[in-house]
Amino acid sequence: MSDLTGKTVAVLGGTGPQGRGLARRFAAAGLDVVIGSRGAEKAERIAAELSEAIGVTVRGAVNADAAAAGDVVLVVVPWEGHAELLTELKSQLAGKVVVDCVNPLGFDKQGPYALAVEEGSATQQAAAILTESRVVGAFHNVSAVLLEDPDVERIECDVLVLGDEREATDLVQALADAVPGMRGVYGGRRRNAHQVEAFTANLIAMNRRYKAHAGLRITDV
């Protein structure tokens, strides 16, 4: 937690289930959190609801203002708008640690599947766009249902953290460690992000079959 002292965590796409859930857990852990959305009104409304629910102040703003306010900025937006948003916010995200949480997935009658990404993965696409940011991939495999459930006190799962800059990956591991039950585990460089993002399709298929909210645990580390 010492690495996070005085830092603001921004969650772009913080009004969706995954973003809302992560914002809830980080704020409950005592971190300064601002959630971003395309519209300020929606962001402020969701932030007020979270603040009331957990008894800690959460701020809301348009994505550009949230990005500017954050020291660590999580990208939790739909894959379809990923490249466009990051391109728009390149200047606001310069010099920051940007955590890409996006899973490029498709769905058909056979279930979820991983999409091909020209750059290799969403994390690598973010790094290609945000050339002045330190991009880390993380929080791909965490259940939004569990994150948002107020009756779940601990999120019992490991978070694979992928990046090329040790200081940045250490910081994101500390961010994961801040949530009770959650643990950040270094998972390799950005070039290894594809299989971590894609594995979310397997987890969704498992959860549908077993009516569960499965996550990952890494043994012997």
Automatic annotation (TrEMBL):
Gene3D superfamilies: NAD(P)-binding Rossmann-like Domain
Highest rank taxon of the organism: Bacteria
A Pfam family per the record: F420_oxidored
InterPro entries documented for this protein: NAD(P)-bd_dom_sf, NpdG, P5C_Rdtase_cat_N, STEAP_metalloreductase
Span of domain Pyrroline-5-carboxylate reductase catalytic N-terminal: 8-104
Keywords annotated in UniProt: Oxidoreductase
PANTHER family recorded: DUDULIN-RELATED, F420-DEPENDENT NADP REDUCTASE
Name the record gives this protein: NADPH-dependent F420 reductase
Recorded name of the encoding gene: npdG
